[in-house]
C-alpha cells in the first residue's frame, strides 16, 4: 500500500535537490566558519551566500538574519531576548499561537511579567483593534503569528504593525507556517522579529532563522563564542544552512504555481466529500493555501485518525507538537469554546511536495468511506 502523505504542515519531505545540496555540503564544506584559514573561509562564504538568500526572501538586510536550530528557538530568542531587556513588562499575544510562543509567554508570567492572551473569532482571526485596546504604557512586546499552523488563518500582521508604528513596542511574528508559502516583506509588515523553520518548506530539520530588525535590542539565550554577531553562540550548521537556502530558492521560484496547485487540491478534496454525501465545515478563513481543516459531524477524531492511518493516509488533528495526546486543540477551543463539537470531529489535511490531484481525490474518497463506516457504529 502506497501511503498518501497529507501532513505537510507538521513537517515536509526534503526536496531531492535540497537533499543533494545537503549531502554535498556535508563532505565538502566541513570547515568552521570562524576559522581564519582557507578551509574556514570556504565555509564562511557558504554561510554568507545563504544568509543573503534568506535576507532577500523577506526584503531584509544580510546582518539582520540570525541562524537558529529552528522555529522554536527563533520564537524563544525573540520573546526571551526582548523580555530580558525590560524586566516585568507587559506582553500581548493570541490564544492560538504555537506552543513555542504560548509556553514562552507562560514562563514569563511565572517570572513576573504580565501577559494578555487575545481572543480570536470563529474564523481564528485576531482583530487588530483588540491589539490596540490591549496596549498598556508598559507593553514591551506583541507576538502574533502570521499564519496559523492548525486552521491556516492568515493574521492581519501588516495592520497590527502599522498601529504599532511610533511606539516603543517590539513586534514579533511567527512565520514558520507561512514562510515559503506567502510573499513576505518585513518592511510592509512592520515587524521587528520574524521566525522561520526549514523543515516546513522541504528543507532539513534542525535549522531556521530569526530576522532581527537593525537597531532593535536583543539579549542572547546562549553564551559561548561570538557567532552570529554575538547574538547566538555556537558553530553554525553550514550543511543544513546551505540546504535550507536551496529550499528557499526553490520555494520562491515555485510559489505561484504551488499556491494554485494547493488551492486546486483543496477544491478537489471538498468536491469528493460533497459528491459522496459527506457533510463538513471548513475551519478557518483566508487560510494558507496548503492547509485544509475540516469539521465532520458524526466522527470521533481519535478513531478517525486511526482508520485513516490504516487506510494509508497521514493526516493530523492539529499541531504535531501535541499529537502524542488527544487533548482538545487549543486553537479550536479559542475559536469555538471548550464544549464545541468541532473539538472532537476536526481534522487537518495539508498538502505539499510529491502530491498530485489523483492522490488527493483518492485520499478524499477513502476519507468519505471511513466517515460512512464510523457513522454506522
Description:
It catalyses: (sulfur carrier)-H + L-cysteine = (sulfur carrier)-SH + L-alanine. Its EC number is 2.8.1.7. Residues 4-361 form the Aminotransferase class V domain. Keywords: Iron, Iron-sulfur, Metal-binding, Pyridoxal phosphate, Transferase. This protein has 377 residues and is an alpha/beta fold. 42% of the residues lie in helices and 14% in strands. It has 13 helices and 12 strands. It has helices at residues 16-28, 38-57, 71-83, 99-110, 128-134, 157-164, 186-189, 227-230, 238-275, 301-310, 330-336, 342-345, 357-375; strands spanning 4-5, 65-68, 90-94, 114-118, 139-143, 170-174, 193-197, 208-212, 281-283, 291-295, 313-314, 346-350. A 7-stranded mixed beta sheet has the order 2-8-7-6-5-3-4, with helices on both faces. Helix 4 (99-110) links the parallel strand 3 and strand 4. The relative contact order is 0.17. The model has no long low-confidence stretch (mean pLDDT 95).
Give a concise summary.
The chain has 377 residues and is of the alpha/beta class.
Topology:
Blueprint lengths: L3 E2 L10 H13 L9 H20 L7 E4 L2 H13 L6 E5 L4 H12 L3 E5 L9 H7 L4 E5 L13 H8 L5 E5 L11 H4 L3 E5 L10 E5 L14 H4 L7 H38 L5 E3 L7 E5 L5 H10 L2 E2 L15 H7 L5 H4 E5 L6 H19 L2
Parallel strand pairs: 1-11, 3-4, 3-5, 5-6, 6-7
Antiparallel strand pairs: 2-8, 7-8, 9-10, 10-12
Helix pairs in contact: 1-9, 2-9, 3-4, 5-6, 9-13, 10-13
CATH superfamily of the largest domain: Type I PLP-dependent aspartate aminotransferase-like (Major domain)
Total beta strand runs:
12
In the predicted model, the low-confidence regions spanning at least 5 consecutive residues are none
Order of helices and strands: EHHEHEHEHEHEHEEHHEEHEHHEH
The coarse overall form would be globular
The CATH topology of the largest domain is given as: Aspartate Aminotransferase, domain 2
Provide the helix percentage.
40-55%
What is the average of the pLDDT values? 95
Q: Kindly report how far apart the N and C termini lie.
A: 26 Å
Separate helix tally: 13
Strand content: 5-15%
User: How large is the radius of gyration?
Assistant: 21 Å
CATH architecture of the largest domain: 3-Layer(aba) Sandwich
CATH class of the largest domain: Alpha Beta
State the secondary-structure class: alpha/beta
Task: Give the strand order of the largest sheet, numbering strands 1, 2, ... along the chain.
Answer: 2-8-7-6-5-3-4
Compute the number of structural domains. 2
Largest sheet entry: 7 strands, mixed
Organism: Planococcus koreensis
GO molecular function: cysteine desulfurase activity; iron-sulfur cluster binding; metal ion binding
EC number: 2.8.1.7
Protein name: cysteine desulfurase
Amino acid at each position: 500500500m502506497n501511503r498518501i502523505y497529507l501532513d505537510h504542515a507538521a513537517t515536509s519531505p526534503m526536496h531531492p535537490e535540497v537533499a543533494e545540496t545537503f549531502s554535498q555540503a556535508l563532505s565538502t564544506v566541513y570547515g568552521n566558519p570562524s576559522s581564519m584559514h582557507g578551509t574556514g573561509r570556504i565555509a564562511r562564504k557558504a554561510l554568507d551566500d545563504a544568509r543573503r538568500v534568506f535576507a532577500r526572501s523577506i526584503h531584509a538586510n544580510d546582518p539582520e538574519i540570525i541562524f537558529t536550530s529552528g522555529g522554536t528557538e527563533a520564537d524563544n530568542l525573540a520573546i526571551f531576548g526582548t523580555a530580558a531587556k525590560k524586566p516585568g513588562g507587559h506582553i500581548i499575544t493570541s490564544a492560538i499561537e504555537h506552543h513555542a510562543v504560548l509556553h514562552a509567554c507562560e514562563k514569563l508570567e511565572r517570572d513576573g511579567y504580565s501577559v494578555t492572551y487575545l481572543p480570536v473569532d470563529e474564523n481564528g482571526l485576531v482583530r487588530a483593534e483588540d491589539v490596540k485596546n490591549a496596549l498598556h504604557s508598559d507593553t514591551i512586546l506583541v507576538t502574533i503569528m502570521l499564519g496559523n499552523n492548525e486552521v491556516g488563518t492568515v493574521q492581519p500582521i501588516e495592520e497590527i504593525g502599522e498601529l504599532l508604528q511610533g511606539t516603543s513596542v517590539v513586534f514579533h511574528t511567527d512565520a514558520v507556517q507561512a514562510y515559503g508559502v506567502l510573499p513576505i516583506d518585513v518592511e510592509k509588515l512592520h515587524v521587528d522579529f520574524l521566525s522561520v523553520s526549514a523543515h516546513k518548506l522541504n528543507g532539513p530539520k534542525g535549522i531556521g532563522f530569526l530576522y532581527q530588525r537593525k537597531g532593535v535590542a536583543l539579549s542572547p539565550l546562549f553564551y559561548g563564542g561570538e557567532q552570529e554577531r554575538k547574538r547566538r553562540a555556537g558553530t553554525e550548521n553550514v550543511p543544513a544552512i546551505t540546504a535550507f537556502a536551496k529550499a528557499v530558492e526553490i520555494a520562491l521560484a515555485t510559489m505561484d504555481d504551488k499556491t494554485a496547485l494547493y488551492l486546486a487540491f483543496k477544491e478537489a478534496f471538498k468536491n469528493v466529500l460533497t459528491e459522496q454525501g459527506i457533510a463538513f465545515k471548513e475551519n478557518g478563513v483566508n487560510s494558507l493555501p496548503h492547509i485544509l481543516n475540516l469539521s465532520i459531524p458524526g466522527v470521533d477524531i481519535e478513531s478517525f485518525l486511526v482508520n485513516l492511518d490504516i487506510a494509508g493516509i497521514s493526516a493530523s488533528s492539529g499541531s504535531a507538537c501535541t499529537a502524542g495526546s488527544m487533548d482538545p486543540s487549543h486553537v479550536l477551543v479559542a475559536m469555538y469554546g471548550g464544549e464545541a463539537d468541532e473539538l472532537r470531529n476536526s481534522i487537518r489535511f495539508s498538502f505539499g511536495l510529491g502530491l498530485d490531484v489523483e492522490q488527493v481525490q483518492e485520499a478524499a474518497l477513502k476519507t468519505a468511506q471511513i466517515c460512512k463506516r464510523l457513522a454506522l457504529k
